[in-house]
Amino acid sequence: MTIPTTFHVTRPVPNTSTEVRPATRGAAVPATHTQQERLLGGRHVHQVNNNIALGLRFEGRLDVPLLERSLNLLAERHETLRTVFPEVDEEAGEEHVMLLLPPEPRALPVLEADDEPEETRLPRVLALLAAHANQPFDLAAGPLFRPVLGRVSESLHVLSMTTDHIVFDAWSARIMINDLLTIYATGQGDDVPALPELSVQFPDFALWQHGHLDGKQLERQLGYWRKQLDGITPIPASGLADPHAPTGAEPGVTKLLEPIGPELSSAVEEFAARERVTSAVLVSAALKAAMWRLRLETLGEDAAGDVATFGSLANRTRPETDAMVGYVATPATFRTRFTGRTPFAELVRLEAQTLFNAMRHQRIPFSLISRELAPEQYGIRFREPGSVPIYLNFDMDMVEDEREPLLHPSGLDVQPIGIPMPEVPRGGLRVIGYQRKDGIALELRYRHDLYGRDWATRFVRLIHAFLQHGVDAPGTPIEELPA
C-alpha cells in the first residue's frame, strides 16, 4: 500500500460526555496523547519492551490454513492491528496521526527446527520465535501485528503474535487470544457463540480522548495530579540504593521469586476482606513499608516515609472499551506518606486511598501529566534506557499466573506459553504479584548492575516479613514490626 504524505484529520466536536461513541473519521485520526509521546520521544528507538509477544501452544491436529484465515479475520475485526503512524514534519508543527490500512490477507510464516533433536526442539523453536518477535517495527510502514507459527512436530505447534506496544496493552491480550480461538473454532464448525459486534474501535477512543480531555475536564484531572505530585517528579525516584552494588557489571535483569505460601495467603485474603480492600493493596502496603525501612538507612527519617512507586492503570473506565483492542492503559505514580509510628492497618488504609484516588483520575494519560508538570520527563521512557530515572515499578493488579482455561477448539489442547524475550533494564526495580492456586508469590526483577543479590534477597524478604507481621498485628506501628 502507498501511504499518502498529506492527511485530513477529522477533529471531534468538543464533548464532555464520558461515553465513547463511534466517530466520523477522515483519512487519518490524531494519535492518542500516549502515542504522540512515543512518536515524539522515541519513534526510531528500538526497545524490546515495546514488542509484546503472546504465545499459544497447540497440541493436536492444527489446521494451519484455517489458523492463517483466523488471524486475518482477527486483524479485520480489530482496527488497531491495522494502524500505522506515518512520518510527519514536526518542525512544521504537523500532528502525529494514525492511518488505518485496509484488511488484506497475509500469509502466516512457519518456522521449524527439523535438524534439532526432538528433546531440544521446543526450546529451539521458542528461541527462533523470540528472535522473530524482537525484530524492530517500522511504525510508519507497518504492519504492527506480526504473527508467526513455530512447528515443533505434526502434533505440536507454537503461535507467536507480536504487536508493538503503541497499539496494544495488557488488557488487550486476553481479548485477542479469546477472539482468535473463537474465530478458529467457528471456522471448523464447533458449536461456540459468535463474537458480538464491537460497539467502538480504537480510533473512536482516540478521537473521544482528544475531545473529552479539554477545558474544565482536563484541569480537573490535572489539578489532582498537580497536588499529589507536589515536590516529586511524575516518574519518581525510588530512593533505594545498594551501598555494596557490583562495580563494572553489565546492565541486565535478574529475577528473584518469593512464595508467600498458602497459610499467609489465606490470612492476607481474610484481612483484605475485613478491610474491604484487595490483596494487592496489602501487598503494596507491605512493599512500601519495606521501602521505608531501606530508605531509612540511606535517606534519614524525614524523607524515608514519602514513598512513591510507578505502575500502570488499565484506564478501561467505560464498558464500551472492555472488548476493544488498543493501547488504552496509562502509567501512574502512587505516592503515600507515612512515618514509622503509622500502624500497619493505617498504612493499608492510606495505600487503599492512594490507589483509589489514582484510579479516579486515570482518564488523563500520563503523557499529559508529565508534559504539564515535568517537561524534562516527557518522552523520557521511550529514549535509551540509560536516560530513565531509577524508579520502582509495581504491578498492583495481582497477575493471574494460572489463568482461566482457554477455549479448546475440537482436536486441540491450547495453553499459553511464554516467548523468551529479553528485558530492557529500565527503572531498576520491578515487583510483580502472582495470584496462584497455592497462594501469592512475589517476583522481584532487579538491575544486577545497580543491586546485588544480597540486597535484593533482603528487600523481597522484608516485603514478606511486613506482610506477615502486619497481618498478625495490624495495630502495631511499622517501626515495631519484626523485619
UniProtKB/TrEMBL annotation:
Q: Write out the coiled-coil annotation as residue ranges.
A: none
The UniProt regions of compositional bias labelled Polar residues, in chain numbering, are 1-19
Where is each Condensation domain found? 45-480
An example Pfam family from this entry, by short name, is Condensation
The UniProt annotation puts the region (Disordered) at 1-28
Q: Which PANTHER family did the record assign?
A: FATTY ACID SYNTHASE, NONRIBOSOMAL PEPTIDE SYNTHETASE
- What is the protein named? Condensation domain-containing protein
This chain's source organism reads Kitasatospora herbaricolor
